[in-house]
Amino acid sequence: MNPESIFHVTFIVFFAFLVIQTLYYLFTIIIGLLQSRRRTFQSKNEDSYFLSSSYFTLPVSIILPVHNEEKWIANSLKSIVALDYPKFEIIVVNDGSTDRTSEILNDILSLEPFDKAYIDQFNSGKIHEIYKSIKYPQVTVINKTEGFKKAGALNTGLNFARYKFICIVDSDTMLEPDALLKVMIQVQKDPDKIIGAGSYFGLINGFKIKDGKILEKYFSFNPIVAYQNLEYIRSFMSSRLTWSAFNAMPCIAGGFGIWRRDILMYLGGFETAFSSEDVEITFHAHDYMIKNEKEYEILMLPYYVGWTEGPSTINSLILQRNRWQRVINESVWRYKHILLNPNYKWLGFFTFPYFILYEVFGVFIEITSIGILTWALLINMLDIKIYLCLLLFMVLIQTFISLSVLFIFIRDQKIFHFRYTCYLILLSFLELLSYKWITMLAKLLGMLDYFRGIRLHDQYKRK
Amino acid sequence: MLMQEYHFNLLRNIDIILITLTALLSVIIIIYASIDERYMRKRYNKLTNIISDLQKLEFQGNDAIVSDCSILIKKTTPFELFHILKHQENIQPGKFSEQFTECLNNSGKISAIEKIAENSRNKWRRIEAIIILGYFKSPNTIQILKQTLSNKDSDIVYFSLISLGHIKNLESAEILLSAIKNRIFSSFKIAAILEHFPPDIVEILINNLTDQDQNLRLWSIKIISRFKPKQYAHKISVLTDDTSPDIRAAACECLGEIAEESTKEAVKKCLKDRIWYVRLHATRALENILGPKSIADIAPLLKDIHWFVRENVKDIMIKHFSEAIIFINKFLNENDQSVKQSCIEIMDISGYRDKVLENIVKGDSETIKKAQLQLETMIKAGAHHGLEGILSKYSDNTRERILSIISAIDKGKADHIAKKLKGKIKEI
């Protein structure tokens, strides 16, 4: 192959990649727009009185895995015990914390040790102590040995959970008081069919918090955080709502997710061998239900239910995205039989190909293409005007997608202030020239670590 | 070169289109964000003013309320009316809800809202109108809601059910029950709505208990349990023989809520049911009916094969500990490790072990002797786990004294407790 043919092939592949990606996003934006509108109206017209005061409201077991979270655990726990929901229990699994986490838990909950018979049905690690809260009778704290990652801690919680629905919350997530109510209203519309549900949660960086309560929602102007806000909106408001509309949701995020207990039991709990458990459990649930020919639905909702701390430095962002990339690779590899499999319908033909093309190989296609185009420019095979036009095209497509989703978000979820909206508009024009490269580097490192067999659930340092 | 020129022209044109689109979208977002904030504030102020005017009417005579209120209501849009009705508690419904309904009638708004509920093409405006009708209860409401219940759109059906839930009369209850029978929507949701109806609906629900449809029988009995009608206890106890385990479990639950002693035999029979959740509900029901006297029948189920049943029995035994202790001592001398562990848990939560140790420390000679015997039973049964937690509350001398008693019973366990105790004191 001569250099000219290499260049032409690259050009066509890259352009096709961009066009397919654009069409894909345009489709998800349209569906996301309709879904977001529908859910927003549903929520506005809802009469939560019937659920919040009903004996028939399904109780929920909340599992809160904790590992060295001394900075966040107090706020997170206080927001959970204050939830506006008729019946729920909280199981805090202290996964070998070595910092002040145990002390803080004791201060907030006034813990008292007690013996409890339980059956270890899953891979969850050794339990040292079980405590009951004197202050909040619905709270149980379990101290266990570290070693099975977050999945192991969740499995421990699952061993103790009593209710039909399980809610998983990250220990750095603060929930809105009506978080559970908003999601369970939708679940209770068909609890026999809905096996999992998630909802939008944003970044808490910059918020004014006191005693587990959010006093003011000041969104951070730190570009690393603001870009993540934009990214979260893009993901939740377009792709995830579309996947959910076609029952092809690939991930109920670990920050806040609801699962039906019986399904988790059938699946054998959470997979401890993976870097993270959320994508795997969602694919596993689809796989199980389809193989067993059961009718089911996994929901994603656009309501903001909670806030979590996002990385605020480049290093911590790279560390987080590295793990996300590994999880995607691990899940895609394990569930590769879903790809273009007619039994899996939209999951096999819409979600999974997207994952492979854009989440797994996308970073290679983008970097190789830009590299070859730059090389073609340097050896005068490509006119600089075309090169610049192509770069501008990429920037504008990305911006157009971001702006469209931002519009859906500000129309339906009125939480951003005017100044912040303007700031996000500005950032969306610059994303491809700045933030995008950081995430691409993180993805590359994630790929490398995946092939090196690294399966750690590493945490970044909290500010 | 020609090819490159073609590519350039194509890309340039696409870029121009995209620049225009992104610029336009940015402007739209900025305008929308700035207008929306102001519009929301304005709308909020208007609603607050209307509600405050309605609140002021409270101090006027009944006739004045009707006429002035009608004038106020005439000025509102259906959307504003929807919000006022949705937050009726702001306008003192207890004091002038009747006059408020009359003024809505006089305002002439309702026929317009009925039309929107029946025919509007805007789905969400239609739903708002459907909800208003539920609050308003006009003569045509039931007929309109019956019609909207058969709509293909699940949101319209759902909000029609909610609206029927606000009417709370026998007619709307019958429609909601037929929705359960015809599987129009999740029975959970419909039951949650019917639960808030007045007790008159029990008559209809009782008639449904003999219906062929299993789902209707199940949900009828579940809703009945919320009203606890003692006069129907025997009719309900018949369902403990139903072919469906769900119905048998629901019947037990309902009998437990009613707590009529004459139904105890029907419930006791379900303690031996082959389905675990029927046994679970039977234990709860029997405890509700007989209180502490139920322990003799319930305690053997601490050996049940199902974890949930055992957990429930455990809770009941904790609640009635003094009646349960005979069974606990018996189980501790048996070989089933899992039952022993449950007994330890019961003793722990009910504070029995604390009491035994306290008796050893502070009691008279007779009490000490008795407490030592109890401690021996516990230690031999393996109920030493967690003792370190209780021991850590005592002074060094007392702790040593108790440990020496334990050591006389089982030296190995005493050493184990002492070892854990050292770690525990450091940890907490």
Profile the largest sheet of chain B: none
Q: Mind describing the biggest β-sheet of chain A?
A: 10 strands, mixed
- Biggest interface: chains and residue counts? A-B, 54 and 60 residues
C-alpha Rg of chain B, in Å?
34 Å
Bin the helical content of chain A: 40-55%
What's the short version?
The complex is a heterodimer of chains A (463) and B (428). With 463 residues, chain A is α/β, with parallel strands linked by helices.
Keywords:
heterodimer, A: 463 residues, alpha/beta, Spore Coat Polysaccharide Biosynthesis Protein SpsA, Chain A, 10-stranded mixed beta sheet, 15 helices, B: 428 residues, mainly alpha, Leucine-rich Repeat Variant, 25 helices, extended
Characterization of the model:
The complex is a heterodimer of chains A (463) and B (428). Chain A is α/β, with parallel strands linked by helices. Chain A has a domain at 57-316: Spore Coat Polysaccharide Biosynthesis Protein SpsA, Chain A. Chain A contains 15 helices and twelve strands. Chain A has helices spanning 3-45, 49-52, 73-81, 101-109, 149-160, 179-187, 223-245, 261-267, 278-291, 314-334, 345-360, 362-378, 384-412, 418-430, 435-451; strands at residues 60-66, 88-95, 111-113, 127-133, 139-144, 165-169, 173-175, 194-203, 208-210, 213-216, 256-260, 297-308. In chain A, β4 (127-133) and β5 form a beta hairpin. In chain A, α1 (3-45) runs parallel beside α13 and α13 (384-412) packs antiparallel against α14 (418-430). The model of chain B has no long low-confidence stretch (mean pLDDT 86). In chain B, 77% of the residues lie in helices and 0% in strands. With 428 residues, chain B is mostly helical. In chain B, α8 runs antiparallel to α9. In chain B, 38% of the residues are buried. Chain B contains 25 helices and no strands. Chain B has helices at residues 2-57, 62-74, 78-86, 93-107, 109-119, 123-136, 141-149, 154-167, 170-181, 187-194, 202-208, 214-227, 233-237, 245-258, 264-270, 276-290, 295-298, 307-319, 321-332, 337-349, 352-362, 365-380, 387-391, 396-409, 411-427. Chain B is extended, with a radius of gyration of 34 Å. Chain B starts with a helix and ends with a helix. The chains are: A alpha/beta (463), B mainly alpha (428). Chains A and B meet through α1, α13 and α14 of A and α1, α6, α8, α10 and α18 of B.
